[in-house]
Amino acid sequence: MIRYLLPLALAAAPALAQDFSEGSEAREWGLFGESKARFAATVTDPLCALSGDCADNCGGGDRQLALVREEDDVMVLVLKNAQSAFNGAVTDLLPFCGQAVEVDGLLITDEEIGARNVYLIQRIRAQGDEEWTRANKWTDAWAERNPGAEGSGPWFRRDPRVQAEIAEEGWLGFGADSPVEEAFLEDWF
């Protein structure tokens, strides 16, 4: 049995040991399973690539976006931009929909926690360009979409969609008039 598995393990070893850290200037966050990663890729709509359900302009900001890495044709899920609030990266990737780019950020890979090819983008540029664009546009884009939500505190406390959901369902989802909701509000607010 081992003689059959050994060739498979040896063939898989280069894929597991890929190192994309060369030239990376990404700032480390100290996240479990993180490594610096700079690579060439194409920005894509994963729903379109995987199922054929395609929308104009990669969904126009309403869909999650991904990178298809040039070196090995692997789809990398971009779940975060460079901002500390763990904002998504769609705002930063959308201008590059369908384009070949170079990205720099952190790749999270850890089999123990089930993370594989999860990316936190910090910088992006079209292939061939000299200048990098920092991946930190989400908060400014949110403020433009929500001009009446100025104020202090985190954006999600002021977001009209979040506030509407809380007004309808309560903080815990049991309804705004639920006894559980009242006890929660007494304890926390």
Task: Fill in the keyword field for this structure.
2 domains, alpha+beta, single chain, 189 residues, OB fold (Dihydrolipoamide Acetyltransferase, E2P), 24% strand, 6 strands, five-stranded mixed beta barrel
Describe the structure.
The protein has about 190 residues and is of the alpha+beta class. The protein folds into two domains: about 20-135, Beta Barrel (OB fold (Dihydrolipoamide Acetyltransferase, E2P)); about 145-189, no CATH class. Helix content is about 30%, strand content about 25%. The chain has helices spanning about 1-15, 45-50, 90-95, 140-145, 155-160, 160-170, 180-189; strands spanning about 35-45, 65-70, 75-80, 100-110, 115-125, 135. The protein has a five-stranded mixed β-barrel with strand order 1-2-3-5-4. It starts with a helix and ends with a helix.
Summarize the structure.
The chain has 189 residues and is α+β, with helices and mostly antiparallel strands. The chain has seven helices and six strands; from the N terminus they run αβαββαβββαααα. The chain is 30% helix and 24% strand.
Helix content: 25-40%
Task: Give me the count of strands.
Answer: 6
SS-based class: alpha+beta
| Known CATH architecture of the largest domain | Beta Barrel
How many angstroms does the end-to-end distance come to?
Answer: 61 Å
> Which fold does the CATH topology of the largest domain refer to?
OB fold (Dihydrolipoamide Acetyltransferase, E2P)
> What is the count of structural domains?
2
DSSP helix count?
Answer: 7
Radius of gyration: 21 Å
User: Which overall shape is indicated by the principal axes computed on the Cα atoms?
Assistant: elongated
Query: Which strand order do you get reading across the main beta sheet?
Result: 1-2-3-5-4
* Poorly predicted residue ranges: 1-15
> Major sheet, described briefly?
5 strands, mixed, barrel
